[in-house]
Design a protein that fits this description.
This protein has ten helices and nine strands. By secondary structure, it is an alpha/beta fold. The protein has a single domain, classed as NAD(P)-binding Rossmann-like Domain (Rossmann fold, 3-Layer(aba) Sandwich), CATH 3.40.50.720. The strands form two sheets. It has a seven-stranded parallel sheet, with helices on both faces. The protein has a two-stranded parallel sheet with strand order 5-8. Strand 6, helix 4 and strand 7 form a beta-alpha-beta unit. The mean pLDDT is about 95.
Length: about 260
């Protein structure tokens, strides 16, 4: 199969590209400044914030292969901190990269898949797209947007043979933690006294989390499935349980549990 993955420089993207290439697929991946290139993968320089880059990347794959069987929207970034102290520019950038970046690519991918009679779209959300996480509000908002968009997209494109799958990872040990931009204003720590402890807890969960290769193996299986489920939570049992608890507990109870976990 011909597969296009966004954001393959590191983390999930790199692990998926390596695994899917080993599976025998023809893998294309977008990047902004990749240096350690994987053999067998075709790299395409593209910035998800530039519509012309997204369009050109899709066109390059179509011109070469004539089709895209699987599109995996993985590119993203995180901005953390108290929402009150998060700048409007940060809010715009968070949504522009994580949500609008996906929309820009799909604007070119969807017509191609419809014309070829089908395809598979795999979009990365997060457990943070299923619940608002404290001091990660901008990130959660961007992932909630992906959830809503994909829910509608799934219904709209079903008649064309296009399958939409949403991936909701929990905490993984990737470069995401080091690359996250966090509010550093001393006033944020003074006003929100739990911010420092919460941030330390978040970073510990991530750095001791699952390996991206674990997720890549799951994606490999989903790519091969004829009828995949709509969404997959890929995380520890504890984190999957938190999603279940949110569904069944009164909101005030779940908020108390989440607040306690994040030391609020």
């Amino acid at each position: 199969m011909v597969i296009l993955i966004t954001g393959i420089t590191s983390g999930f993207g790199r692990a998926m590209a390596e695994r899917l290439c080993a599976d025998g697929h023809r893998v294309y991946g977008t990047h902004r400044k990749a240096t350690d290139l994987l053999p067998g993968v075709t790299y395409i320089r593209a910035d998800a914030q530039r519509a012309e880059d997204c369009e050109a990347a899709v066109k390059q794959v179509l011109d070469t292969e004539g089709r895209i069987d699987v599109f995996i929207n993985n590119a993203g970034m995180g901005i953390g901190g108290p929402l009150e102290f998060s700048s409007l520019e940060d809010a715009e950038r968070q949504m522009d990269v994580n949500w609008m970046g996906m929309v820009r690519f799909l604007h070119s991918v969807l017509p191609a898949m419809r014309a070829q009679g089908g395809g598979k779209i795999i979009c990365f959300s997060s457990i943070g797209g299923l619940m608002g996480l404290p001091f990660q509000g901008l990130y959660s908002a961007s992932k909630f947007a992906i959830e809503g968009y994909c829910e509608a997209l799934r219904l709209e494109t079903k008649a064309f043979g296009i399958q939409v799958v949403v991936i909701e990872p929990g905490d993984f040990a990737t470069a995401f933690t080091a690359q996250r931009k966090s509010v550093a204003d001393p006033a944020a720590y003074e006003v929100y006294t739990s911010y420092a402890k919460s941030l330390a807890s978040i970073e510990k969960d991530e750095t001791t989390g699952l390996k991206p290769e674990f997720l890549a193996r799951k994606i490999s299986r989903i790519v091969r499935m004829r009828r995949p489920r709509y969404h997959y939570i890929i995380s520890t049992l504890e984190q999957r349980l938190s999603v279940t608890l949110k569904k069944i507990l009164p909101p005030s109870w779940f908020a108390a549990i989440l607040g306690s976990y994040y030391k609020l």
